[in-house]
Amino acid sequence: MNLTEYIESHRDAHLNELYEFLKIPSVSAKSEHKSDIERAAQWVAEKLRSAGMDKVEIVPTKMHPLVYGESLKARGKPTVLFYGHYDVQPPEPLELWTSPAFEPTVRNGNLFGRGTADDKGQVHIHLKALEALHQIEGELPINVKVMIEGEEEVGSESLWDFVLSNKERLKADALVVSDTAMLGRGVPSITYGLRGLNYYQMEIAGPAQDLHSGVFGGAVPNPLTILCELFAKLHDKNFRVTVPGFYDDVAAVSRAERKALHKLPWKEKEFRKTVGAPVLCGEKGYSIVEQLWCRPTLELNGIWGGYAGEGAKTVIPSKAYAKFSTRLVPNQEPARIARLVEQHLRKLLPKTVQMKLEVLSTGKPWVAPFTHPFFEVAHDALEKGFGKRAVFIREGGSIPFVTQMYDTFKVPCVLMGFGLPDENAHAPDEHIALENYFGGIKAIAHFYQGLATL
Ligand code: BES
Ligand code: MN
Ligand code: MN
Question: For labelling alongside 215, which of 12, 281, 348, 410 has CA 20 to 30 A away?
Fold first, then answer.
C-alpha cells in the first residue's frame, strides 16, 4: 500500500478519532475546564506515541500543560518543529449552535464543532499524516519535533518560557504551523504574513457607587457615556485611526506585492456573503485585501457597565468597561503602539473620571520571504493533496508565536492552513470542510515525505 492509498483507506477511522478529540471541551479561558484541558493533553500525547514519536512528554506549566514529542531517527535529514494548539475558544452563545459545540456532527460535507478548524482539526491532520508515514515507511523519513500547547486562545503565556529554557532541544530547520485558513474553497494556500496585536482592557470610574439616574442625573459624570465618547473619537471619516503616530512605522506594501495580492483569486462577492453586513467600510485608499492583511486597525471588542438586563433600571453606573484591540502590521512595535494609544486616551479623557488601562496580551506582526526550498516542497505537497497549485497569502489574524520563533531562530516558517474564512472560528457553528481535512492529511504527509528528498 502506498501513502495515498493508506490515507484513503483510513478516512473513516481518522474522522472517528477526530470526533473523540473534539468531544473534549478543552476551553482554556475557563478554570472549570481544567480537567478537560488535562484530558485533551493526554489524548494528544497518546496520539503522538501512536504516530511514532519516541519521546513524548506532558509538560506542566503555570497554566495549562503543553505536549511535546520528538522522533529524531532520520540521520542527515531535515528537522521540523510542528506547532499547534489543543485548546479552544469558549462555545458561548450556546443557543446559536445548530448542533451542540462538543458533539461533532457532519452536515453538507462540513464537520461542525468547537475546534474543528481552530485548531484541533488541523492538529489532527498532522498527527494522522505522521502516523500514515510511520506506518508506510516503518520509520519517519525526517526528524520531527511536535509541540502542542493549551494556552493559545488565552495568550500563550507559558509557551515562550518553555521555548527559552529548551532552546537547544527545539532547534529545527523549519517551523511548521497549520492554524490559518485557505484563501477560499479549492485554493490551497501558504501564509507568509500575519498581523500582530495588542489586546486592551479599560476601566472608567466615575461616582463611588451606582446612582439613581433621576436623583443624580444631570450633575454627575456618566462613565458609560464618557467611554462611548472616547471610542467615537478614535477613527476619522476615512476610517483611519486617530491616535497620533499610529501609522508612523507602518511599512508600505511594495508595488510588486500589491500587484501579486491583486491577482489572487479572492472574490469580493464571497467575502460580502461571509460578512453579511449591508455595506462594507474600511480605510480609504486600500483594497479590501490590503485593509485585512496589510493595514493596522483599532477595534472595540466589547463594552459593559450599568444595567443591561430585562426591563428598565434607571441608573448611572459607577464604572464602565471596554475590551478593545489593535491589529498591527510590520514594522509597528506593540509596546510603542500601546504607549501611543494610552497617551491619546489620557489626553481625550475628561477630568471628571479616572481611567485604568491594561494590555492583556500582545504579539508582533510577521511577514517573511518564501524563497527557501521548503516552500517548494510545501507547494508541491499541497498540489498532491488538493490537485491545485497553491497561492501565497497574508492573513489578518495573529499567531504571536510565529514571530517569536522567526525572530529568535531565524528559520523559515511554513504556514499551511486548512480552514476557510467562513468557517466560524471563535463563533457558533464552527466547522471544517471535510475535503480540506482529508486533503490536508494527504498534503502534510507528502510534505513531510518530500522534505526527506532535500
Ligand atoms: N488560529 C488563530 C489565528 C488566525 C486566525 C490566524 C485566522 C490567521 C487567520 C488563533 O487561534 C487566534 O485566534 N489568535 C488570536 C490571537 C491570540 C493571541 C489570542 C487572534 O488572532 O485573535
Ligand atoms: Mn488557532
Ligand atoms: Mn483562535
Answer: 348
